[in-house]
Amino acid sequence: MNPSSRRFAPPREALIKSKEGSRTHDRPHKCHRSILFTAGPDSAGSLIPSDIKPADSFGPSIILEVLSDGKEVTRQVIGVYKTAPAVFTHDSSGLGFPAATLVRVSANGDQVFESFMQRDEKTGSFSMRPIDLSDETERVFISLFLSGIRQAADPNNDGNLNETIRVEVNGFEFTPSYAGPQPDFPGLEQINLELPR
């Protein structure tokens, strides 16, 4: 029977095994259970436990096992790095348009959230919406969603990593107004970039 044709209950759990020291094969694994956020035929998303510390350069290897009904569905060896930024994408492919939200902040502080994308009703394809910057009284931000910046330096210890994180758009470098943990989802990070006028 072809393993790819077997049916499994949707994976809900990941088992992460780590060893102290990345290149030692004689030490026992330390096991960490983790919730699986997403699972598809070619990808899985799980939170790496905070007690697995990255190395300064190449990072320790960990074994990620995806379980379904307590049985292993797949296993992958992955590296853990101090920073490895990766912006989530609109279609979850890792390519194309970013997973982002447009936020308009009025002079009185009210916030309006808008989709960054628009769908063509005829073709079903998505494209980026034009951004209207005509109202000079409001501030407009793009909120990008990503992972891999949490361990970046925070020189003033305020929880905002914008002292060391930069965003490049069309060859222009910007300092974000905020870069750090997204408050609602564990392991997710957010960069807020104010659009210049």
How would you describe this structure to a colleague?
The chain has 197 residues and is mostly beta strands. It folds into two domains: 3-79, no CATH class; 86-194, no CATH class. It contains no helices and 15 strands. It has strands spanning 13-18, 30-39, 44-46, 61-68, 71-79, 86-87, 100-105, 111-115, 117-119, 126-128, 139-147, 167-169, 172-174, 178-181, 189-194.
Summary, kept brief:
It contains no helices and 15 strands. The chain has 197 residues and is mainly β. The chain folds into two domains: 3-79, no CATH class; 86-194, no CATH class.
List unreliable stretches of 5+ residues. 1-11, 20-27
Measured distance between first and last alpha carbons: 60 Å
Number of helical regions = 0
Largest β-sheet summary:
6 strands, antiparallel
What share of the residues lie within helices?
under 10%
Short key terms for the protein model shown above:
six-stranded antiparallel beta sheet, mainly beta, 2 domains
